[in-house]
């Protein structure tokens, strides 16, 4: 069991923050989430740590059974670097983050396992 994370006091619109680390394969240059120990493409263990810019695209809604501790609704987010992570998306219309929407990282907690994104306003 993971203890519940207390909401920060006086929360208005959270500023973008947190660092999302990932790994890039030294052999085939594939990007993978930092939770993977081996490259899912070529199986190499030579993965170099890297830091994501935190910008990505909503890929799909996850099944509620996979929600876990994620805040908001659980989505699979594909980062611009080319890897995907399960993450909560907050701040959008209730239950209506469109697939393909651009999102940015708000926070990364629990060593990057608890990720929160928010939609990027269209300009
Ligand atoms: Zn590889």
Automatic annotation (TrEMBL):
Cross-referenced InterPro entries: NA-bd_OB-fold
Name of the molecule in the record: DUF35 domain-containing protein
């Amino acid at each position: 069991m993971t203890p519940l994370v207390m909401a920060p006091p006086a929360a208005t619109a959270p500023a973008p923050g947190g660092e999302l680390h990932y790994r890039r394969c030294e052999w085939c240059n594939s990007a993978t989430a930092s939770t993977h120990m081996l490259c899912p493409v070529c199986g190499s263990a030579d993965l170099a740590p890297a830091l994501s810019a935190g910008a990505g695209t909503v890929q799909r809604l996850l099944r509620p059974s996979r929600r876990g501790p994620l805040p908001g609704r659980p989505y699979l987010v594909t980062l611009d670097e080319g890897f995907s992570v399960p993450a909560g998306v907050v701040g959008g219309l209730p239950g209506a983050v469109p697939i393909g929407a651009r999102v940015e990282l708000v926070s990364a907690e629990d060593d990057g396992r608890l990720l929160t994104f928010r939609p990027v306003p269209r300009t």
